[in-house]
Amino acid sequence: MWVLLDATERRHVVVEIRVSESLRYLCMICLQSFTLDYWAGKEIKIKRGRVLTATVVYPSYPGGLNLQHSVEYWLTLDLLASNNPKVGTAVRVQNSSQADIVFVPFFSSLSYNRHSKLHGKEKVSVNKMLQTKLVRFLMARDEWKRFGGKDHLIVAHHPNSMLYARKKLGSAMFVLADFGRYPVEIANLGKDIIAPYKHVVRTIPIGESAQFDHRPILMHFQGAIYRKDGGAIRQELYYLLKDEKDVHFTFGTYRGNGIRKAAQGMASSKFCLNIAGDTPSSNRLFDAIASRCVPVIISDEIELPFEDVLDYSEFCVFVRASDAVRKGYLLDLLRAIDRYQWTKLWERLKEIAPHFEYSYPSQPSDAVAMVWEAVLRKTSSVQFKRHRKNRFARSEALLKRV
């Protein structure tokens, strides 16, 4: 199998998509014109060098804030194109016995964003209905029964997605934004993957990224200030920092010109605050990376994408919440970071930034490739358990033939 390639080479995950009419229906409800046989929408020409190798048609994803949880979209696009002549990290197969992972093409975040509210005389939301159908479909499949779903991959990146199904499907490998709204027995680092948000601000080209002396703002935060639970720290920091001349700490949304204003502010700042909100993670971290603004992470419970292969301390500043709310602590800390120290963080930030860019066709080491590689690392434990289970099963099967 592909996954057996030497670890020093380009490694592959063999992924299976098996679609019946019922599962295709689930996907179509979430994204109009979506089927695994044909996508009507944008057209992209795929080239290898100067040679045109394929023309692919696919639908666009609903814009605005929906984009930040669009992980399922990019992974599905990548799999649908996996038969095109390009080197990738995931390849579709037609036989489930060849698959390392069974990918479930259910657009759970889009289902929550578009279909969680009741309309008219509805007593059950479309979002809940879709999850019920998904559970019924998966549990009836031989592929699910074979290992109890442990080799299935389900994307549930929005913190509120898969709310009704997550417990029943908890044996599967989840792709999540964080573990903030999951009990540890359902989601944990042992079996699941943290994937980056899709940033919503424009990516600043490396050559256009301002250096230390051309960033007049020390630190930047623009977003919801009054949050509950762990996000209450935002309010405390607001009152500590709001009157500082070189600090931009204001309420803001991504509506209207909010995205453009936030992007301009981050690109003009030395540091961008990523503070815990209703959940430990937020898209603000990945907007900061796209803006080439050194992130300051104030979220004690945050889990970070690909942290087993990336050292975030090389391009981020971490501050404990208890220290951040001490008067003067955050200002003193960031003002003490000189041009040389900041530039070192900034240079490393520019190096790792491509790992957080979702793209189609996917590029080597972009966010899509990084997610598949994270899946590959997780599959080693799944395969280990599978092989142990087969120790006596195959031998006993031979005896039955005698």
From TrEMBL:
GO terms for molecular function: glycosyltransferase activity. It is found in: Golgi apparatus membrane. Keywords: Glycosyltransferase, Golgi apparatus, Signal-anchor, Transferase, Transmembrane. It is a single-pass type II membrane protein. The keyword Transmembrane applies. Residues 66-331 form the Exostosin GT47 domain. GO terms for cellular component: Golgi membrane. Belongs to the glycosyltransferase 47 family. This is EXOSTOSIN HEPARAN SULFATE GLYCOSYLTRANSFERASE -RELATED. It comes from Salix viminalis.
